[in-house]
């Protein structure tokens, strides 16, 4: 009796073929924004050659990382047909709570960080519960939470930054792995992979697309819409909590003004990445490119000495153009935009 043989070379070739197909599909699906990212990089590098330096490119990734956390979660929320305007304020309250627990309460960094993440998740869960169980539009719910969270951050900190002089805490957002790779970028990679697996390899991800595409049909098919929405908004709160802790670590303090207008960058990254504002369609991979475009744009404008005030104008125009492009695409594809 001959023993069965296993051809490792064939398995290796199959893996390479599948990987190649996945990459080519990704490039094809995101060709437009990829070209936009490349052109943007070329233009900025011509204006300021320092843009392509290794230090600056790592700096771009580090600056992009916090927006990437928010944008990844925002993608899920928008795919469901919702919106989360509270993430910037959750960044502030999470950072303030964490730093106060370290600096004033004397708690270990690990415990304070867990508490900060819990605060972010609680605000997110509140959003998800209200959106899922009432008829109040997500825009209004998260707008209210935005004000509540920002107010809490100001009240508990008395409107003042909370300084933290802890090497272990500061390492969270300012450290380097191997002296080269920024820690926030490592978190970003892990979050991207996790979100990709959720949206593409699990029932939860498929249910999100189903609910966003047609919530009534999803309900009749047995999908628990409330749980899906609760997860998406809680995850958004968690990502905002991570962003808040990373930012406060980088600034060596928790500041009640932190995260101001952060939701603008997150939404811009999502719509640039091709996620429809009407729900039902979108990809994590597209959002990744969208967040990189926002990061490169911000870095390039800084290198060119453009005022931060004008940067808000530019980002606003980018969002308008991206949403308009989405509307045109849907009309071309024959998809109803509704009233």
Automatic annotation (TrEMBL):
Per the UniProt record, the source organism is: Aquibacillus halophilus
Q: How does it sit in the membrane?
A: Multi-pass membrane protein
In the UniProt record, the gene name given for this protein reads rbsC
* Coiled-coil region(s): none
Gene Ontology molecular functions: transmembrane transporter activity
| CDD domains (UniProt xref) | TM_PBP1_transp_AraH_like (cd06579)
Q: Name one Pfam family in it.
A: BPD_transp_2
Keywords assigned by UniProt, alphabetized:
Cell membrane, Membrane, Transmembrane, Transmembrane helix
Superkingdom of the source species: Bacteria
Q: Name one GO cellular component term.
A: plasma membrane
Q: Does the keyword Zinc-finger apply?
A: no
Q: Where in the cell is it found?
A: Cell membrane
What's the protein here called? Ribose ABC transporter permease
Q: Which residues cross the membrane?
A: 31-48, 69-94, 100-123, 135-156, 176-198, 230-252, 309-327
């Amino acid at each position: 009796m001959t023993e069965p043989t296993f051809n490792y070379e064939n398995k290796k070739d199959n893996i390479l073929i599948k990987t190649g197909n996945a990459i080519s599909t990704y490039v094809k699906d995101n060709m437009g924004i990829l070209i936009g990212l490349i052109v943007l990089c070329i233009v900025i590098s011509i204006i300021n050659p320092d843009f392509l330096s290794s230090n600056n490119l790592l700096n771009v990734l580090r600056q992009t990382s916090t927006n990437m956390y928010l944008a990844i979660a925002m993608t899920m929320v928008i795919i469901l047909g919702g919106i989360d305007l509270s993430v910037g304020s959750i960044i502030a309250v999470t950072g303030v709570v964490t730093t106060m627990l370290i600096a004033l309460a004397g708690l270990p960094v690990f415990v304070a960080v867990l508490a900060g993440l819990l605060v972010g998740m609680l605000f997110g869960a509140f959003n998800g519960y209200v959106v899922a169980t009432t008829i109040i539009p997500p825009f209004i719910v998260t707008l209210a939470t935005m004000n509540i969270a920002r107010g809490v951050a100001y009240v508990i900190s008395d409107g003042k930054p909370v300084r933290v002089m802890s090497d272990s805490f500061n390492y969270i957002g300012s450290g380097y792995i191997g002296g080269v790779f920024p820690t926030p970028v490592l978190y970003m990679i892990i979050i991207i992979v996790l979100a990709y697996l959720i949206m593409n390899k699990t029932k939860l991800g498929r249910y999100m697309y189903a609910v966003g595409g047609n919530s009534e049909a999803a309900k009749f098919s047995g999908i628990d819409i409330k749980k899906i929405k609760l997860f998406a908004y809680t995850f958004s709160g968690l990502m905002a909590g991570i962003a808040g802790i990373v930012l406060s670590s980088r600034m060596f303090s928790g500041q009640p003004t932190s995260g101001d207008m952060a939701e603008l960058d997150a939404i811009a990254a999502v719509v640039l990445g091709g996620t429809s504002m009407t729900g039902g369609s979108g990809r994590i991979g597209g959002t990744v490119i969208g967040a990189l475009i926002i990061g490169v744009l911000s870095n390039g404008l800084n290198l060119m000495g453009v005022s931060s005030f004008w940067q808000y104008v530019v980002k606003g125009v980018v969002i308008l153009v991206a949403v308009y492009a989405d509307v045109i695409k849907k009309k071309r594809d024959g998809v109803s935009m509704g009233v």
